[in-house]
Design goal:
single chain, about 260 residues, alpha+beta, three-stranded antiparallel beta sheet, 10 strands, about 35% helix
Length: about 260
Amino acid sequence: EMLDRILAIGRHEHGLFYNRINPQTGEHVGDLTDNWGYDLNGFYTVYLIDKTEAYGQAVRNALGNLHQHYSDYKWEGGGADGYADSIEGGINLYNREPIRSAEDWLDYSTKLMWKIQKPDGVIEGWHGDGNFARTTIMYCLWKTKGLTINPWRDDVILGAVQDGDALKITISAKREWKGKIIFDSPRHQTIMKMPLDWPRINQFPEWFTAKSNKSFAVHDLTYNSKKIYTGNQLQQGLPINLERGSERHLLVQTSANSVEP
């Protein structure tokens, strides 16, 4: 009843939530909240559990309206914390409902947020700067599909896109680099010990995960080679050597040798 009442009176026509509502009268006060995505986490979690279609549609409706109507909206008056909260909620829900126009909104809004950072690196000089940092990390992990490198170096450029079950990776370096590409695990299981990857505030969403019980074929398209790795091996890191100014292209696919539990 609470969720249904919120959907009935708490939303703007584009599916985002107001800052405050009176649940008895239906009156709303203030602008739209930058925490709309956090609120929709709750709706989507219930949708995952009992498949109430109205709750899944509430998420799709909000995501589908962002780019057209809210690309230049000043969340919380245009401060970094407002942008960060709104973008974080958007990334979290886009992970579950990959609506194309929402992707454009996330790219555009993140650039607006980054413009707030001062030349000395300080954002606004208060503890909310950590929110800016966390949201930036979330955004970057989306662009690598959860992959990281070790050791990190600022001239090493890594990006990945997922095409069905396949992951396409590009990595380059201005100087010679020897290291590993670290793959993500299904952390809701491996760390949280939960059967469901439910959307939650401040989480780093899972994108491409190397499950321990699966095997993966790694095609090095640059050198025309192929090797099979286990999920555990990819979680420990895929060894990569880059020559100065070089770029490598990899294609990772689930192997037919994978064993289901």
